[in-house]
Write a structure and sequence with these properties.
16 strands; 9 helices; 34% helix; 370 residues; 3-stranded mixed β-sheet; alpha/beta; 7-stranded mixed β-sheet
Length: 370
């Protein structure tokens, strides 16, 4: 939430997304002089003791928040989650004939298209949740066409564009190595990291600003990172260099670290999960109780708690809703460019008051235009 002269502004953007006010105020205070160093984090050497301490504490705080086991390595890389579509395949599928891919929405669809471009490994479509721009349900893990000998099975746990989420996350029993894109929901609920060979997430949705991508990878999988893979795309090389193979995204890492500390102060992931469930429940109730004025076609068991999509009966009304909402301090509610309608991204940093303000506006708008 940001504040104008007269009233708060709530940012419902899907990413780059809302950050906690407390984090932004700390960053503002430390912008010119971090911790008495006389330097801004933006301008200090990434190899300095000061920045190495920032990186170390960010890693340790993330490890604590997600209860990441000691046999998992954490990397803060660049290139966004999209770069991982190819990087994970280069590293984890090296020497394998096949990798499995589950498509449940826009981002897993793009991942499936990209994964095979730099490898000879077959990228097998293990499951598909719908047609282009019309995903209304997620393919359950029991329906996946999986080869136990595959290098891995890749899926996206939350689809920002289509408002879909695996509320019941797949279990690893009987599956090859699970690789998950958690960009838009990481740290929003408790997970068992040990269920996954690798988790990756672009920071700009539920952690920090754009520019950093978190990779959590089980240590034994680093043995798959062959020397034939260029070093900058090689997980093992990044781990050996302790995240310093090249200059990392220093300022986004710093902000991410502040977010981790903020999240700890909220009571950790267990507490924020309760808040997230409440926010989503209230917003979906407002949609469902609108007598059809607001529409969400996603199956109830697959509705995202992070990205709530909805629309009215026609585009003109949707456009008017977005325009009027913006004037009320409810910002960035427009849906994905190819989808239209509205999308409210209610990540960890979105306060309950922001969701309540949106619901109040929705009811007022319906009274005037319904």
């Amino acid at each position: 939430m940001m504040t104008t002269q007269n009233s708060p502004v709530y940012n419902f953007s899907a990413g780059p997304a809302i950050l906690p006010d407390a984090v932004l105020r700390t960053a503002q205070q430390e912008l010119l002089d971090y911790n008495g160093s006389g330097l801004s984090v933006m301008t200090m050497s990434h190899r300095s003791d000061v920045f190495m301490s920032i990186l170390h504490h960010a890693e340790q705080d993330l490890r604590q928040l997600l209860n990441i086991p000691d046999n998992y390595k954490i990397l803060f890389l660049q290139g966004g989650a999209s770069a991982q579509f190819n990087m994970m395949t280069l590293n984890l599928a090296h020497g394998f004939k096949r990798a499995d891919s589950v498509v449940s929405g826009n981002w897993s669809r793009i991942a499936h298209q990209q994964m095979g471009k730099l490898t000879q490994t077959e990228i097998h479509l293990a499951a598909h949740g719908g047609d282009l721009f019309d995903y209304q349900d997620i393919p359950p893990a029991a329906s996946w066409d999986i080869d136990p000998q595959s290098a891995f099975v890749h899926f996206c746990s939350n689809e920002t564009v289509h408002g879909l989420q695996y509320l019941d996350l797949p279990k690893p029993d009987g599956l090859p190595t699970l690789v998950c894109d958690m960009s838009s929901e990481i740290l929003s609920r408790q997970i068992n990291v040990s269920d996954y060979g690798m988790i990756y997430a672009g920071a700009q949705k539920n952690i920090g600003p754009s520019g950093a991508t978190i990779v959590i990878i089980r240590e034994d999988l680093l043995d798959r990172s062959d020397d034939s893979i260029p070093d900058v795309w090689n997980y093992k090389k990044h781990v050996i260099k302790q995240g310093m193979y090249n200059t990392p995204a220093t300022y986004p890492i710093y902000i991410s670290g502040l977010v981790f500390r903020w999240l700890q102060a909220q009571g950790g992931v267990a507490q924020i999960e309760k808040t997230n469930a409440l926010k989503a429940s209230l917003l979906y109730q407002a949609i469902d109780n609108s007598n059809g004025f607001y529409i969400n076609n996603i199956k109830e068991h697959a509705r995202s708690r992070m990205n709530v999509i909805f629309h009215t009966a026609d585009k003109a009304t949707d456009d008017l809703f977005i325009q009027e909402a913006s004037l009320r301090g409810l910002s960035m509610l427009n849906g994905y460019k190819s989808m239209g309608g509205m999308r409210a991204s209610i990540y960890n940093a979105m306060p309950l008051q922001g969701v309540e303000a949106l619901i109040d506006f929705m009811r007022d708008f319906q009274r005037r235009h319904g």
